[in-house]
Amino acid sequence: MAPDSTLTLTRPDDWHLHLRDGAMLAHVVPLTARTFSRAIVMPNLDTPVTTTYSALAYRERILAALPHGTPFEPLMTLYLTDETTPDEVRRAKDSGQVHGVKYYPAGATTNSAFGVSNLKRCWPVLETMQAIGLPLLVHGEVTDPAVDLFDREKVFIDEQLIPLRAAFPALRVVFEHITTESAVQYVRDGARRDLLLAATITAHHLLYNRNALFQGGIRPHYYCRPILKRERHRRALLEAATSGNPRFFLGTDSAPHTRHAKESACGCAGCFTALNAMELYAEAFDSVGAIGRLEGFASFFGADFYGLPRNREKITLIRCNWTVPQELDLGGDTLVPLRAGETMAWKYID
Ligand code: DOR
Ligand code: ZN
Fold it and tell me: Ligand 1: which residue has its CA nearest to atom 4?
């Protein structure tokens, strides 16, 4: 095999992941743990993870779902609500297992009904987080139905993120799964001023624009929130991810829903990418000749931002065509991976 056909990287981490619970959890945890060393686990379960107590219990269920002997560290988060107290976030930080607090504007996406109705109500909690150094992880979309779906990230920056960061200049903020050139610009400019702001970028937003949703018919497995945008936004994201700027790092936002829940008259938002995540990112980086920048993005910058040690083990990807399975069996229902039935150009080797 030619030398450029093998890519050896420090084992990566996934800084934004949905693992769900129960039977789904048991199916998806091994897929992420196969490739990634750690993951920031989203708290938007059917009953959201709003307390340190429930985060620690959820962590135990994740560990119990790991194949025997697989080293994987779930990095837990709390779900911010109007009722979250300063004491609760202090308890979370003191536990050593909770690494962020997730802000979902109420109604923005899956299981966000318990989210924050007005961020002003959370001012005392945000003050505490700023003081103790616990990052706020932001789903950056306004929920006002009068705002066009494709503009909600940009409006969120102007109406919420800028005022929030002005009010809490020392709060660490991760702008999750950014999808627009406005977000890229905002993070790049903010990062020039301080080291408190970063963004995660998904593989699907690097590879696809909104045409993918309607290629030959409606394609529910490409529907996620924030929704795929125009090509010029995809280009800006790809440029940011491959630029070597440490404020942009990997977060798959792999968000499994059953086939039944996706292929529906009112299908759920979420792309399931845990099965082939690193292969998708490799393809995106390779598309602009930047495969050499993948390691920083996938394995270093997130750990540095969260103040955690970089991983030491290595993983290998090879350039090799393989076909993504049409579906994974969930015992009754099925799970459709992104790119089901299509060819991948890179392959992760165990
Ligand atoms: O597409 C999405 N799916 N976006 C989110 O923010 C949530 C996620 C989910 O939990 O399904
Ligand atoms: Zn998510």
Answer: 225
